[in-house]
Amino acid sequence: MQAVILSIGDELVLGQNIDTNSAYLSQHLASKGIGTLYHQSVADNQEAITQAIVQASQRVELVIITGGLGPTEDDLTRQALAQAMGVELVEHQPSIEAITAMYAKRGRTMPPRNRVQALHPQGTTVIPNHWGTAPGIHARLNKADIYVMPGVPREMYSIYENLIAPAIEQLPGDRQAILTAKINTFGLGESDVAQKLGELMDRTRNPTVGTTVSDAIVAVRIRAEFDTPAQAREQLDDTIAKVYERLGPVIFGQEDQTLSRAVVNLLCEHKLTAATAESCTGGLLAKMLTDVPGCSDNFAGGWVTYTNEMKISQLGVEPRTLEIHDAVSEPVARQMALGALNASKADVALSTTGFAGPGGGTPEKPVGTVWIGLARRNKDTDAVNVEAREFVISGNRDDVRDRAAKCALQMLRFSLMGLSVDNLTWSRRQPATSNI
Predict the structure, then answer these.
(1) For residues 315 and 381, what is the distance between their CA atoms, to the nearest angstrom?
(2) What pLDDT, on a 0 to 100 scale, did the predictor assign at position 426?
(3) Contact in structure between 30 and 178 (CB atoms under 8 Å)
(4) What is the mean pLDDT of residues 246-266?
(5) Fewer CB in a 10 Å sphere around the end CB: N or C, the chain?
(6) 259-435 has which fold?
(7) Distance between CA atoms of residues 5 and 39, nearest Å
(8) DSSP label at 403?
């Protein structure tokens, strides 16, 4: 059994809203052994919606539609479904009563325009909406069962989970066990990840392996489809192990695990605290760490020292160092990290200094040049190791700041794991280290 998900609305086609409904539905359908063939966003145009419904109903056994059930002129899903089926719209009296009661509960009278929400194509079944004013619809067309729900996520989730999901489970049709996994990496480009994965990405292979990129996080997505859950689990786990073997430490977690969560977990494991000293990232590095619940046990605090004067007064950067090397340099990154380490009494400290753009770069140090410093105290000897690494990051100002903060997190993560960052994509030269 396969499904198609149609999301209706100009706001989706224009990119004004993100279609979260389709992602939610695809995940839930996969858990029931139903694969989604495609998602399609359709504008508020009756002919376009009708065509999309007809095409989907000819290709798959299950079509789920969200949106276009409101009371306004641009809510056209019920009309399009009726057109696709070649029937008229008829009024459903129990829906009129339910909508009227819902308005009365709010101390209001139902506006005449809301009466349209009680219409449904003749021969279809109305699905009650106990969470809003737009009832859902169940229809049969060509080879497909069609379920229509409102696009408001809260209402859609409630109708689907309580009324439609149980009905889908009873539909006839062969199901496969579908299991998925998402493995998150940072530090290699997508093409580098693909090269390391090699034949695992062969599209004729089961499980299938693919990659997606979002904000420089390359996710490896694995999908196993087999006759039984046991087969799917065995093959999925085997492929996960192969991905870990080929990609190694650039993998920082699975599913919703973030890089900052992985770093905080390591700090907690080693019973260490961290501090930050930021220039070009403007506090973003500290934000990423403090986005993690419970980070207060492992994050001491940080500084945003944007000017040279602040670097000198707050972190003890030597004026002569700034004069000779300027702010975007290895010595300044090292002194910023060391200053933060000493002032915070933390166990490790990260620093960032660079040209985020759009101006400020030089031919020798173009926009995107970032130095990241890492100072780490040995708890046993109280000796401090300081290193700095230069990264060259492409993209706009937001890209540079985001990638720089993530490079700093990955640099710290590798240090806590006893590894070098030599092979990370944006690293440009060998680190400079010293013991103080």
Answers:
(1) 23
(2) 65
(3) yes
(4) 97
(5) C
(6) Maf protein (3.90.950)
(7) 5
(8) H
How far apart CA 391 and CA 202 sit, in angstroms, is: 33
Q: What is the pLDDT of residues 166-176, one digit of tens each?
A: 999 999 888 88
Terminal alpha carbon distance of the chain: 65
Structure token pair of residue 382: 């109280």
Nearest in space to 344 (alpha carbons), one of 299, 311, 384: 299
The CATH code for residues 177-254 is 3.30.70.2860
Confidence of residue 387 (pLDDT cuts 50, 70, 90): very high
Pairing mode of beta strands 384-392, 89-91: unpaired
| Contact between 270 and 264 (Cβ < 8 Å) | no
As to burial, measured by CB atoms within 10 angstroms (0-12 exposed, 13-18 middle, 19+ buried), residue 154 is exposed
2-169 belongs to CATH 3.30.450.40: no
In this predicted structure, the answer to whether residue 430 has a pLDDT above a threshold of 60 is no
What the block records as the tokens of 70 is 């409101």
> Distance between CA 35 and CA 321 in Å, rounded?
60
Residue 99 contacts residue 114 (beta carbons within 8 Å): yes
Euclidean distance between CA atoms 79 and 50, whole angstroms: 8
Q: Which residues contact 47 (CB under 8 A, 6 or more apart)?
A: 80
**Domain map of the chain by residue range?**
2-169, 177-254, 259-435
Per-residue burial over 283-294, b if 16 or more Cβ lie within 10 Å, else e, is bbbbebbbebee
Per-residue pLDDT tens digits for 76-90: 999 999 999 999 999
Runs of H (alpha helix) within 277-396: 284-290, 308-315, 319-325, 330-344
What is d(CA 127, CA 130) in angstroms, rounded to the nearest whole number? 10
